[in-house]
Amino acid sequence: MKPLVEIKNLKKYFTVPNGYLHAVDNLSFSIPEGETLGIVGESGCGKSTLGRVILRLHEPTSGQIVYDGMDITTFNDEEMRKMRKHMQIIFQDPYASLNPRFTVSQIIEEPLKLHKIYSNDKERKKRVEDLMEYVGLSKRAYNLYPHEFDGGRRQRVVIARALSVNPKFIVCDEPVSALDVSVQAQILNLMIELQEKLGLTYIFISHDLSVVKHISTNIGVMYLGQMIEKAPKNEMFKKPLHPYTIALLSAIPSINIREKKKKIILKGEIGSPINPKAGCRFSLRCPFAVEQCVSCDPELIEVEKNHFVSCFRYKEVIDGTLKYETK
Amino acid sequence: MENTKILEINNLHVQYITEEETVNAVNGVSLSICKGESLGLVGETGAGKTTTALSIMQLVPYPPGIITDGEIIFEGKDLIFNTERENQEMRGNGISMIFQDPMTSLNPIMTIGEQLLEVVLTHKKVTREEGKRQVIELLKTVGVKEDRYNDYPHQFSGGMKQRVVITMALLCNPKLLIADEPTTALDVTIQAQVLDIISDLQVKFNMSMILITHDLGVVAETCDKVAIMYAGEIIEAGTVEDVYTVAKHPYTRGLFESIPKLDDKNEKLVPISGSTPNAVDLPSGCYFHPRCKYKQEICERESPTLKGEGHQYKCHFSLFEKEELG
């Protein structure tokens, strides 16, 4: 499959009083059409910024964003506005991303009006009704306001709005994090169904690894603005290579009481992304850090087919000579 | 584990009454916890978990909240009839609570040392020096270095703040610790650190613990027993082993089926249809019947009673009957 979205050396630095905050630091990856790239990482690792920069909701500091063969970083405002039909975003909090003064139908038809997709009201109304049916909202909801819905139904409205302009690519920024598990499953199933039906390409950002695992084709792990490992999902869970990924996966609380996992408890906390020092960002917490890790930057390299890792000592992880002590 | 009951709640009802409406937050909760035991209280938003905890602490905000029925017996004494003075004595010494958001449970204009010392001096008859020594010792146990004693809360990260809050809760050696979503605001690697500390201290001080969470995984790794709440009721309770192996209530089963698994199978999720009922206007009969796929005529009419010994569940039908009905 040819890549629909390709990111090359993308950087986003924010200016803060004492220097630069490296929110996204030199990321390169591509997403084939129809696939989902899951992005996981802890708070402050730059995953949300990445999602926004890809849509140019934040201007990138440098680097390229290639969508369907076109470098959109060179686009002017007018060109970018036309582009937005193809690329949409779903935000985390369905309580904050819907205008409380608009009815559900007004919310869903807004993008159709902005992009002047239908010339007559009747067709547009039909499209809104179809969209509502698509995402599982009853006809009764047409003239209701967002406050009359619970979180799950609100998120359905958000999804219908994102789909209204027939996008090919959707950035999903923690779309189910605000929902209870029983409702979360409804929304996840809906998103997978829609992807199959419409051939959508997703970037799925979440801190919940089991959710990401469920929906993604490939998973990328971010740490302080950098991607430190990327692999097909099953591969990632079976054979994580980066010491951070290994610790992260072991820390997921499991409901399987038959297999008690050995947990790796990392010391320390995620560092600061402001003016980071040279060397591997994880070296401060990494029990295996050696001289080289502190002085040189490791690069993200493909060590097996589709499995990328950024660690100097990955070979020792592969042959099993480097192991965490577990309790 | 000793088998003396440290806390027993019988038929607890809590309502929030305003002029417009009455919210039925807790509708007949009964549970008990023995010395040294840990109980996971699981449920979705609005299930009544936090209200149950606040009732135990005698902190239900009145008005509008009021305990309308039931008893909360802690060490043989019904807390509901306590005077405010007795309650203050009980909080901290007897029962302590850790709240979800560490940012809001610390005073931003006091150093953490002062705040912690205040707790010791209020509850124990010790000198300032002795109090400070105790604070620093416990801070070290949870992994906060001594030189941070004079720092303010905003100088700590979320995980570190939660350690300070844990220290505060444990300073007076409570017999029962209530932890209300202690790790929900934290990242997964930090969550592992904090849960590890809580479990260690629970064993070390032989405390009983009620862990409130919506995360079934956290309960599986930290608790001995589990109680599942739905619409202000406990609908299933038992040992973690029993409930996680064979869930008997359709809601519990639904919860397990809606969680994405970490194995390779990538099975389709089976969500529970609909959403949690509005506590102002609860359904007739079994509160879960509008969402239940095994629903029968009796479920709309009659509220089921809690069945079973040890492993209890609140449903008209046993698991085998459900399979046939389904």
UniProtKB/TrEMBL annotation, chain A:
<feature type="domain" description="ABC transporter">
    <location>
        <begin position="5"/>
        <end position="249"/>
    </location>
</feature>
<comment type="similarity">
    <text>Belongs to the ABC transporter superfamily.</text>
</comment>
<keyword id="KW-0067">ATP-binding</keyword>
<dbReference type="GO" id="GO:0016887">
    <property type="term" value="F:ATP hydrolysis activity"/>
</dbReference>
<dbReference type="GO" id="GO:0015833">
    <property type="term" value="P:peptide transport"/>
</dbReference>
<keyword id="KW-0547">Nucleotide-binding</keyword>
<dbReference type="InterPro" id="IPR003593">
    <property type="entry name" value="AAA+_ATPase"/>
</dbReference>
<dbReference type="Pfam" id="PF08352">
    <property type="entry name" value="oligo_HPY"/>
</dbReference>
<dbReference type="GO" id="GO:0055085">
    <property type="term" value="P:transmembrane transport"/>
</dbReference>
<dbReference type="InterPro" id="IPR013563">
    <property type="entry name" value="Oligopep_ABC_C"/>
</dbReference>
<dbReference type="GO" id="GO:0005524">
    <property type="term" value="F:ATP binding"/>
</dbReference>
<dbReference type="Pfam" id="PF00005">
    <property type="entry name" value="ABC_tran"/>
</dbReference>
<keyword id="KW-0813">Transport</keyword>
<dbReference type="InterPro" id="IPR050319">
    <property type="entry name" value="ABC_transp_ATP-bind"/>
</dbReference>
<protein>
    <submittedName>
        <fullName>Oligopeptide/dipeptide ABC transporter, ATP-binding protein, C-terminal domain-containing protein</fullName>
    </submittedName>
</protein>
<dbReference type="InterPro" id="IPR003439">
    <property type="entry name" value="ABC_transporter-like_ATP-bd"/>
</dbReference>
<dbReference type="InterPro" id="IPR027417">
    <property type="entry name" value="P-loop_NTPase"/>
</dbReference>
Automatic annotation (TrEMBL), chain B:
<keyword id="KW-1003">Cell membrane</keyword>
<keyword id="KW-0547">Nucleotide-binding</keyword>
<keyword id="KW-0921">Nickel transport</keyword>
<dbReference type="InterPro" id="IPR027417">
    <property type="entry name" value="P-loop_NTPase"/>
</dbReference>
<dbReference type="Pfam" id="PF08352">
    <property type="entry name" value="oligo_HPY"/>
</dbReference>
<dbReference type="GO" id="GO:0015833">
    <property type="term" value="P:peptide transport"/>
</dbReference>
<protein>
    <recommendedName>
        <fullName>Nickel import system ATP-binding protein NikD</fullName>
        <ecNumber>7.2.2.11</ecNumber>
    </recommendedName>
</protein>
<keyword id="KW-0533">Nickel</keyword>
<keyword id="KW-0813">Transport</keyword>
<dbReference type="GO" id="GO:0016887">
    <property type="term" value="F:ATP hydrolysis activity"/>
</dbReference>
<dbReference type="InterPro" id="IPR013563">
    <property type="entry name" value="Oligopep_ABC_C"/>
</dbReference>
<dbReference type="InterPro" id="IPR003593">
    <property type="entry name" value="AAA+_ATPase"/>
</dbReference>
<dbReference type="InterPro" id="IPR003439">
    <property type="entry name" value="ABC_transporter-like_ATP-bd"/>
</dbReference>
<dbReference type="GO" id="GO:0005524">
    <property type="term" value="F:ATP binding"/>
</dbReference>
<keyword id="KW-0472">Membrane</keyword>
<keyword id="KW-0406">Ion transport</keyword>
<dbReference type="Pfam" id="PF00005">
    <property type="entry name" value="ABC_tran"/>
</dbReference>
<dbReference type="GO" id="GO:0015413">
    <property type="term" value="F:ABC-type nickel transporter activity"/>
</dbReference>
<keyword id="KW-1278">Translocase</keyword>
<comment type="similarity">
    <text>Belongs to the ABC transporter superfamily.</text>
</comment>
<dbReference type="InterPro" id="IPR050388">
    <property type="entry name" value="ABC_Ni/Peptide_Import"/>
</dbReference>
<dbReference type="GO" id="GO:0005886">
    <property type="term" value="C:plasma membrane"/>
</dbReference>
